Amino acid sequence: MQHSNCFHGRGKFLMTLSFTGLFLCTVLQLQAQDLEKDIIGKWLMVSNGDGFLGGHILFKDGGTYQYYRKWPDGSGAEIAGGYELDSESNPARLKLCLGDCGAAGSEWTTNFGIVRSTEGNQLEMYFSSDGSYPDNFPKDIDAKGMYLFQAEH
User: Lower CB density within 10 Å: C or N end of the chain?
Assistant: First the structure.
């Protein structure tokens, strides 16, 4: 009786595919957990597409932030509130609320964006102008709504 290697070859392929999928899911989950952990701290504005001269954002444990921006006339302003990070989305979604994210009317004062960390302790954020989450990052680093931050050491 002859044995067919077709099943064994297909079984090995499916086993390899399953392990690869499991590995990728684990890596993506770790990256999501890393972003949630790594976003905490103070980030200095390196560049932006909205004409600000500089600034910084501070993400705190417990889901709050403080965001300072320096306007072209030299004046500055700080806003603060809650943030929600959905690191399970691809790209990760970031909601910055003025005050409490659950407060009545907060949808009118909320910035919706996407966020990713890059090599060299940098954080890229891209905010929409229409009250929805962007689908992906622009190719132009100087696009309106695009921000690049460097971790403060």
Answer: N
Choose the CATH number for 39-151 among 1.10.8, 2.40.50, 3.90.1150, 2.40.128: 2.40.128
Residue ranges of domains in the chain: 39-151
Q: How far apart are CA 137 and CA 112, in angstroms?
A: 13
Residue pLDDT, tens place only, 92-129: 999 999 999 988 887 788 999 999 999 889 999 999 98
3-class SS of residue 145: coil
